[in-house]
Amino acid sequence: MIRMGTVGTNWITQQFVEALALSGRYELAGVYSRHQDTADAFAAKNQAQTSYTDYEEMLTQADLDAVYIASPNSLHFDQAMAAIAHDISIVVEKPAFSNRQEMVAVQAALAQHPDVKFFEAARHVHTPNFQALSKALLGLPTIQGAALTYMKYSSRYDLVLVGDVPNVFSRQFSAGALQDLGVYPIYLAVALFGQPEHVQYYPTLIATGADGKGLAVLRYVGFDITVSFGKTSNSYAPSEIYGLKETVSLDSAGELTHVSERDAAGNVTDLSQPALANPMLPEVTDFARVLDAPADPQNQADYRRWLQWSTTVNQVLYSLRVSANLRFPADEND
């Protein structure tokens, strides 16, 4: 069993912990929160072995194999580096790091600790529906572009409207629409088509100074991908990838729960795979397979591919922000 620790006690950490339990490959060895009552409550709810309000103490005392980091974005880097220093593998919620400088530093630390693994928790690219989507694209005679959409109104925007600055809308925490929701379709584009030649971001800024929504253009050789995302309104539009007369459709570039293909005659084939008990189950199963058998050739190949995706997504997100002059305090030394 893989001994996992967690950082953060919000809904996404709860979903992750439930996926760990469903996989049968992990035990929850430690829970960290800044507040003792929150840590104790989360630990009790999920049968964790111990709870901590000191992160360093958890890393040194809980005998962890890996730690899941789901704190505000700007805190990921320091927490990841601390875990690596203790030879503890890391699963970091997307976006893993604020900028390319942090990614380079993490990669350098990993080189000094070769037994440590780094996984970015991009759940949708580990799902059976992503595999179905990838297979469908291989059957297209050509790719002529895509329109990817992921837009969901955030209840935290209500707080912005009355003058507050919640973490998810704060540049101080390396947050905003691109980092929170845009990362999903950007990850999808990178995993399917690789690194774009050129990118441009057109953000809509809100009162906090962060981007509340935005439009990104990713330019590839021979086609463009437009990416629309936001946290200040809702969209129910599907995402589409264009062949010649064929179109592959997704219900959402973030959720990826439904995939279909329309052929030249207009006939629709449903490619969707059975619904998952937990959307994070495929990724935690993939991570466990690498952690348990790191020398397996297939596991090594998969791990290298995931690392490349993570590195490229980090670069694309940073380049998009640079194109829009959207900077974070974490960028000061970049």
From TrEMBL:
Q: Which organism's genome codes for this protein?
A: Levilactobacillus lanxiensis
The region annotated as signal peptide is none
Domain Gfo/Idh/MocA-like oxidoreductase N-terminal per the UniProt entry, residue ranges: 2-114
Q: Which Pfam families match?
A: GFO_IDH_MocA (PF01408)
Q: What is the lineage of its organism?
A: Bacteria, Bacillati, Bacillota, Bacilli, Lactobacillales
For this entry, the protein name equals Gfo/Idh/MocA family protein
